Amino acid sequence: REHYGRVNLIFNNAGIAFTGTTLEEGYKDLERVMDVDFWGVVNGTKEFLPYLIESGDGHVVNVSSVFGLFAVPTQGAYNAAKFAVRGFTEALAQEMRLSSNPVKVTCVHPGGIKTNIARNGDQAPGRDHDELASSFDKMARTSPEKAANVILKGVEKGKVRVLIGADAWALDKFIRITGSAYQPIVAKFAHRNKL
After folding, report:
1. Dihedral through CA 185, CA 175, CA 158, CA 4, nearest 10?
2. pLDDT tens digits, one per residue of 61-120
3. CATH number, position 33
4. Whole-model pTM?
5. Which residues are catalytic?
6. Dihedral angle computed from the Cα positions of residues 35, 36, 39 and 45, in that order, rounded to the nearest 10 degrees
């Protein structure tokens, strides 16, 4: 802070993955994903929030996922972390509004972004790492550069929620329409695509 001056904007983007059913994943697997994907966001937010308030025009951008909007089999740890990011971020947005603090808050829900999250992710023993990564690569259609541009436009407009990619928009609408009835449909899709 002494070197750069005031802090106006922070981006908390933390993501690692573990693929495996609840029975397959160990407590250490779940803790590792939660430590990075959720607590990383919380720690970044809490560390910088006083400075963002002090700046007079701060903005917190926390990255969740479409997996923070709906649950997917074999992604329990990731789902838990990204749902937690969503809840934490939406609560923070309301707190800033109620306290009249000059901090805007945005929760980002990317769909499939062409990153190495699946290639770098861990999986339960017996699962084919290359097959999982290949399945993700086929579904990830948005470039990181396009995702960054969408996020920046959302920040400029002061949006509370930003969806990235046609898949994120379609899934958000699908879940809003179907409610919890989405679960058997997603389970069938996940099974068919060996997720």
Report:
1. -40
2. 999 999 999 999 999 999 999 999 999 999 999 999 999 998 999 999 998 776 756 556
3. 3.40.50.720
4. 0.89
5. 78
6. 160
